[in-house]
Design brief:
The longest helix is centred in the last third of the chain and has 21 residues, at 259-279. With 360 residues, the chain is of the alpha/beta class. Strand 3 (93-98), helix 4 (101-110) and strand 4 form a beta-alpha-beta unit. Helix 3 (75-87) crosses helix 4 (101-110). It is globular, with a radius of gyration of 21 Å. 34% of the residues lie in helices and 16% in strands. The protein has 2 domains: 17-256, Type I PLP-dependent aspartate aminotransferase-like (Major domain) (Aspartate Aminotransferase, domain 2, 3-Layer(aba) Sandwich); 258-359, Aspartate Aminotransferase, domain 1 (Alpha-Beta Complex), CATH 3.90.1150.10. Bound molecules: 4'-deoxy-4'-aminopyridoxal-5'-phosphate. 4'-deoxy-4'-aminopyridoxal-5'-phosphate (PMP) is lined by residues 10, 75-77, 102, 148, 152, 172, 174-175, 193. 4'-deoxy-4'-aminopyridoxal-5'-phosphate is lined by residues 10, 75-77, 102, 148, 152, 172, 174-175, 193. It comes from Kistimonas scapharcae. Residues 5-348 form the Aminotransferase class V domain. Its EC number is 2.6.1.52.
């Protein structure tokens, strides 16, 4: 069996070792004669899986004790509403930075619950850069400031963590969590859908500072209430047990790779090679201002869009899958999350050079 090189933006590649372990344990987990999916989430053996996953995540990210880790459902999209429903308290407004598709979605959903102040936007630069912090119009009475550190579709990433003073900072880290070490203490709340660097779709990670819980609006569904979810160890109802288990295997795999410093070095090397291939050619291009290029999602265009379908079919034949860009930007996109090996990037770079030779 050969595994293809998978550049999907999400649900994305999972480490082969993790899939092998899940396969080996599928029919007979821990010698019990059943799979992990076939037992109660309240049995001690599953509770141990859940607790270990949390502990491994805490170790990887060095999460301080005054932060709770929640495993929720509904993806990052549910969090677009869950955040204002929980964090507004008595306040009426929140600040949002607008840097592309996903921050725009977060803004649109939050606008149903509060007054959104768009404190900075790079829309007029077609989202090819991060708006200059000196020009942000942060308000003093905002309940929180929300931003998207890595725009998955645009391939745009913040370099610095915004300084918002005493106003809690909220980040949608769906496509960047666990790609590099992170100073959690700078954030009030972090959320991420699992299906890029964490595990399979179906589970949503929330890391929240304890003092921000307990202010949910009466209209907030119980299942989306951070305090209730936390009080019930993320088992207010039946959690997605298999996704939780598999995420735990990914955390253990990450530890075996040497943790986030080691994975960051690898991610930077992978991205460096791909951007060098793009920049070193007149045939490929990436529009993002160099300093703000994502190391996770690398969109690129061919000199002639008429060649797109040929590029996609030939790359797929060469075992390089899911390179089609998002429909709103077109072109190509290579997502190179933690589980995408350096060999995949090497193979893509070689394919790109060969394609350019034949069609450029
Ligand atoms: N935010 C970001 C940055 C994303 O990349 C995505 C998914 N690609 C979402 C939000 C939406 O996530 P979900 O499908 O888990 O709701």
């Amino acid at each position: 069996m050969t595994r293809a090189f998978n550049f999907c933006a999400g649900p994305a590649a999972l480490p082969t070792e993790v899939l092998e372990q899940a396969r080996d344990e599928m029919l007979d987990w821990q010698g019990r004669g059943i799979s992990v999916m076939e037992t109660s989430h309240r049995n001690p053996e599953f509770m141990a899986v859940a607790a270990q996953a949390e502990q491994d995540l805490r170790d990887l990210l060095a999460i301080p004790d005054n932060y709770r880790v929640l495993f929720m459902q509904g993806g990052a999209t549910a969090q677009f509403a869950t955040v204002p429903l929980n964090l507004l308290g008595k306040r009426m407004s929140a600040d949002y930075l607008d840097t592309g598709h996903w921050s725009s979605k977060a803004i649109k959903e939050a606008s149903r619950y509060c007054q959104v102040n768009v404190a900075g936007s790079s829309a007029d630069a077609n989202y090819t850069t991060v708006p200059d912090a000196s020009r942000w119009r942060l308000s003093t009475d905002a309940a929180y400031v929300h931003y998207t550190p890595n725009e998955t579709i645009g391939g745009l990433a913040f370099v610095d963590i915004p300084d918002t003073g005493d106003v809690p900072l909220v980040a949608d880290m769906s496509s960047s969590i666990l790609s590099e070490p992170l100073d959690i203490s700078r954030f009030g709340l972090i959320y991420a859908g699992a299906q890029k660097n964490i595990g399979p779709a179906g589970i949503t990670l929330v890391i929240v500072r304890e003092d921000l819980m307990g202010f949910a609006s009466d209209a907030c569904p119980s299942l989306q209430n951070y305090q209730l979810v936390s009080d019930n160890d993320s088992m207010l109802n039946t959690p997605p047990t298999f996704a939780w288990y598999l995420s735990g295997l990914v955390f253990q795999w990450l530890k075996r790779q040497g943790g986030l410093k080691a994975i960051q070095a690898l991610n930077q090397r992978k991205a460096g090679k791909l951007y060098a291939a793009i920049d070193g050619s007149d045939f490929y291009s990436n529009p993002i201002e160099t300093a703000y290029r994502s190391i996770m999602n690398v969109p690129f265009r061919l000199a002639d869009d008429a060649l797109n379908s040929t590029f996609l079919s030939e790359s797929a034949d060469a075992g390089l899958l899911n390179l089609k860009g998002h429909r709103v930007v077109g072109g190509m996109r290579a997502s190179i999350y933690n589980a995408v090996p350096e060999a995949a990037v090497d193979a893509l770079v070689a394919f790109m050079a060969d394609f350019e030779r034949r069609y450029g």
